[in-house]
Amino acid sequence: MNMTTNISGAIRTAVLSILLCCVVYTLVIWAIAQLFVPNTANGSLVKNEAGEYVGSRQVAQEFTSDKYFHSRPSAADYNGAGAVGSNLTPTSPKITERAREIIKKYGATAGNPIPADLVTASGSGLDPHITLAAAKFQAPRVAKARGISEAELEKIIASQVEYPGGVMRNEPIVNVLMLNLALDRKR
Q: What is the pTM of this model?
């Protein structure tokens, strides 16, 4: 065999491998996802009542107004393209300072302790859920800002509770975007 034949065979093998692994495989997986889980495959995008896209069920976003429930802190500044942890240790002065600022912002005290998920970012920095305890902790602020009773707000929170893990029944969680949209629908 000569060198030209070897190079030609190697190029054909490389091109075929690229086509199979990068194009065909990707198209097959995309088609399967579109067939079985199209909403998830397309980003779990959420529309408001006006039909406008307002976010994704799978990616946290920042809410700063008192009339909305707030998400967990984000090490990625709520940027879905940059899902990252902070890479800071739990004993980092930056983490400690951020926690102190958040605790002060929420007015937490020893008698009214703040749930940990309102102070700590998730591993990805984009977790769209908070615990039920974190939602209830924020309820007085949201009820006051919206001029509704805490009892009415508790019903809205309860309507948005999810139990991850199916029958294993982990701690109840609430998707912050979906909860805030439910609040807007109630006005």
A: 0.79
pLDDT along the chain (187 residues), means of 10: 84 95 94 91 87 90 94 83 72 86 89 91 84 96 95 95 79 94 87
In three-state form (DSSP H/G/I as H, E/B as E, the rest C), the secondary structure along the chain is CCHHHHHHHHHHHHHHHHHHHHHHHHHHHHHHHHHHCHHHHCCCEEECCCCCEEEECCECCCCCCCCCCCCCCCCCCCCHHHCCCCCCCCCCHHHHHHHHHHHHHHCCCCCCCCCHHHCCCCCCCCCCEEEHHHHHHHHHHHHHHHCCCHHHHHHHHHHCEECCCHHHCCCCEEEHHHHHHHHHHHC
